[in-house]
Structures are given as C-alpha cells and as structure tokens.
C-alpha cells in the first residue's frame, strides 16, 4: 500500500535534509546559479519542479532561474548546459543509471547535486543532498510526495533569502571543480 503524503513523512531525517539542501541552494542562487531539473522516468516532475522555481506565486518572492532537461542523452545535454556554480537536481529511483551518472559528474562540472526519490536509497555520497522517502511502492512518484518535497524545497529556499546573513556564511565545498576519469577521457 502506498503511504503517499503522511504526517510522518518528514521524520527520519528528511526534514533536516530538506533544510540543508534549501540553504545550499539559496547560497548558490544568491551567487547566480541556475537550477537544472531532470527526471528521466517521470519527465513531468522535472518540468513541474522547474516551473516552481521560475514562477513566483507568492508576492515578494523572486523568480529563480530553472530549466527542465528532458529527452534522450541527458548526460550530454547536462554537460553542455550546466556551469560551475549551478545546481543539478534529479527525481528518480536509486537504480536509475542516467541519474547516478549525472550525480557523479556534477562535482566535475562545479555543480551542486540533489537527488529526490523513494524506495531503496542510493549509496552514501551519491549526491550532495539526498531527499528520500521510505516508500518502496513503485507508484510512489504518483502519490504527490515528490511534489511536496520540491514545493518544500522551493519554499525553504525562499525562507533562506529572508535571512541574508545565511547566504554569506560558509561557502559550500561543491564549488570546487573536480575532474572525473570520464571527463578527462572526453566522455559524455
């Protein structure tokens, strides 16, 4: 049975993970980042998430640059689009090889990474921020729980903007550009 959105969904560390991801994203946006959204198996999630950040529905909230990367060969598309300082966020299960590859490459591109999903978690260090729901039902993406996560991410990112002192504190280490073997070899 799919649990969907429950009162306990934010237990188990998800609330803290959302807060940390939101602060990191706000800091990146304050320095001019663009958000790149991917969801290979559920493209509407990538599109919806990008719209949330671009379209400020609350008076006084700013539009933030965000795009959905969709279609085939997402690694090649991201490699061309993502710039140092940007944010790459994915919605996918831990078994999605394209997303795993994107999350692995993000540091080499100088991008912060976040991975939203459900079911078995990706391995430690798979992304800078892992926002995970402990729901093993394959229909979890259709329950609205992912939508809640990226709505909260959007809202909390804007809460950080209301506290400018937070935006100047401790730069994140993901800004340090690292090169992966695939990038050195000219891989996509």
CATH superfamily: Glucose-6-phosphate isomerase like protein, domain 1
Globally, the shape reads globular
Please trace the helix and strand order, writing H or E for each element.
Answer: HEHEHEHEEHHH
- Give the DSSP E fraction (strand runs of 2 or more residues): 5-15%
**Major sheet details:** 5 strands, parallel
Strand order of the largest sheet: 2-1-3-4-5
C-alpha termini separation: 39 Å
In total, how many domains does the architecture comprise?
A: 1
SSE-based structural type: alpha/beta
Which CATH architecture?
A: 3-Layer(aba) Sandwich
Fill in the CATH topology.
Rossmann fold
What Rg do the Cα atoms give?
16 Å
Unreliable spans are 1-5, 173-188
Q: Name the CATH class.
A: Alpha Beta
Helix proportion? 25-40%
Q: Determine the number of helices (DSSP H or I, runs of at least 4 residues).
A: 7
pLDDT average, as an integer? 84
The number of strands is 5
């Amino acid at each position: 049975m799919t649990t969907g959105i429950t009162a306990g969904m934010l237990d188990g560390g998800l609330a803290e993970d959302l807060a940390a991801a939101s602060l990191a994203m706000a800091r990146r946006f304050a320095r001019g980042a663009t958000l790149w959204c991917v969801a290979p198996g559920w493209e509407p999630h990538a599109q919806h998430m990008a719209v949330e950040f671009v379209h400020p529905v609350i008076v006084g909230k700013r539009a933030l640059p965000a795009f959905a990367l969709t279609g085939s060969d997402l690694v090649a598309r991201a490699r061309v689009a993502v710039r140092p300082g940007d944010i790459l966020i994915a919605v996918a299960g831990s078994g999605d090889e394209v997303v795993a590859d994107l999350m692995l490459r993000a540091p080499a591109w100088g991008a912060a990474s976040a991975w939203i999903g459900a079911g078995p978690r990706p391995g430690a260090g798979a992304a800078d921020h892992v926002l995970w729901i402990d729901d093993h039902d394959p229909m979890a993406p259709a329950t609205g729980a992912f939508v809640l996560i990226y709505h909260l991410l959007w809202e909390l990112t804007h809460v950080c903007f209301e506290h400018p002192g937070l935006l100047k504190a401790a730069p994140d280490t993901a800004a340090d550009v690292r090169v992966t073997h695939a990038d050195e070899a000219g891989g996509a």
